[in-house]
UniProtKB/TrEMBL annotation:
This is Polysaccharide deacetylase family sporulation protein PdaB. Pfam families: Polysacc_deac_1. GO terms for cellular component: membrane. Residues 1-29 form the signal peptide. PROSITE patterns: NODB, PROKAR_LIPOPROTEIN. It comes from Alicyclobacillus hesperidum. The lineage of its organism: Bacteria, Bacillati, Bacillota, Bacilli, Bacillales. InterPro entries: Glyco_hydro/deAcase_b/a-brl, NODB_dom, PdaB-like, Polysacc_deacetylase_ArnD. Keywords: Signal.
Length: 244
């Protein structure tokens, strides 16, 4: 009797191990994946809409000419990600962005990779830039593009817990490399897809964007695209997100 009982206990243990190894990790992996915070690169839509986005963290020579181009081209929807120090140093330009009706997002305070620092530092930096932007423009930011686009799952989780949606890009103009006006234009207009988030810069480091931007706008319109803010893009279609 004891030997039968012992055999049954061994068999039961073997079954539990087998099912535990076969099922447990898959369920945990699915749960982890479902709950993993994500950054947004584009939205899935058949409508020909794109979001033009501009990061600004330095200088006052390029931002206003970029705004002038948008006005001349009658582009009423765009999203600007502003750093805290730049906003405080150039409040008149930041206010102009707001007054022209463009969306404003957060681009952090110090231009350093968030993944190299603890959550406490990230929260402090984002709070500082949020305060600066609000002080100058009255905008309480909810979208953030991290400096250098740097993040990892921990950073995303921290920012999500602060109430922020992390915005990346699907098409990178590489305008900050100043590769030539036509290279910038070609890169954007050939890569753009419906629901795209397009990365450009209105910092002084982007020396060719002012000349490239009118061509980008005209060619995208000729392809049938309309321009919306990032928030409008997110509200109108399914989100494509990823952790890279």
């Amino acid at each position: 009797m004891k030997s039968i009982r012992r055999w049954l206990m061994s068999a039961l243990a073997a079954c539990l191990v087998a099912f535990g190894c076969g099922i447990g990790p898959q369920v945990f992996a699915a749960s982890t994946q479902a709950n993993q915070p994500k950054a947004i690169y584009k939205v899935d839509t058949k409508e020909k809409v794109v979001a033009l986005t501009f990061d600004i963290s330095w200088g006052n020579k390029v931002p206003e000419p970029v705004l002038n181009v948008l006005k001349q081209q009658n582009v009423k929807k765009a999203t600007f990600f502003l750093s805290g120090p730049w906003t405080l140093h150039h409040p008149e330009i930041a206010k102009k962005i707001k007054d022209m009706g463009y969306e404003i997002g957060n681009h952090g305070n110090l231009h350093k990779d968030f993944s190299n620092y603890p959550d406490s530092w990230i929260r402090e930096q984002v709070a500082l830039s949020e305060k600066s932007i609000y002080q100058v423009t009255g905008v309480k930011t909810k979208l953030i593009r991290t400096p250098n686009g740097d993040f990892n799952p921990r950073v995303l989780r921290c920012l999500n817990n602060m109430g922020y949606t992390v915005i990346q890009w699907n098409t990178d103009s590489l305008d900050w490399k100043n590769p030539g006006v036509q290279n910038i234009v070609s890169r954007v207009t050939k890569r753009a897809v419906p629901g795209d988030i397009i990365l450009m810069h209105a910092s002084d480091s982007s020396k060719q964007i002012v000349e490239a931007l009118p061509q980008i706008i005209t060619q995208l319109r000729n392809q049938g695209y309309q321009f919306v803010t990032v928030s409008e893009l997110l509200a109108g279609a399914n989100v494509s997100s990823n952790v890279r």
